[in-house]
Amino acid sequence: MNPIKLALQYMDTVFYEKDLDKLRPLLADAFIFEGPFFSFNTAAAYINSLKADPPAEFKYEILRSWEDNHGVCLIYRFAKPGISTLMSQWFEVEEGKITKTLLIFDSGVFSN
């Protein structure tokens, strides 16, 4: 699967899918997630964290995307009740799996 398709499947799974185990085939075992609130260094730890606090009533709208042979950058509007903000997420891809994602956003909007 090419990088943009992997990234979009990841987004749909995290935001809309009830079965978070569907993330597993998309992620490398040593998947690294870095964001303002959390960091993980295995796919299992990341998926388990989502299962412990599942996304609820989240949605997104892609505004821009860039792709090269090794990754994808998505800029999107994130929304949930009471919060709407821009986010940027970089996905690194190797051998058909997401190996790393870096999520960037203003975390201050979540403290209100």
Automatic annotation (TrEMBL):
Record-linked Pfam families: SnoaL_2
Xref: InterPro entries: NTF2-like_dom_sf (IPR032710), SnoaL-like (IPR037401)
Residue intervals of the SnoaL-like domain: 9-100
Coiled coil: none
Protein's recorded name: Nuclear transport factor 2 family protein
Organism: Agaribacillus aureus
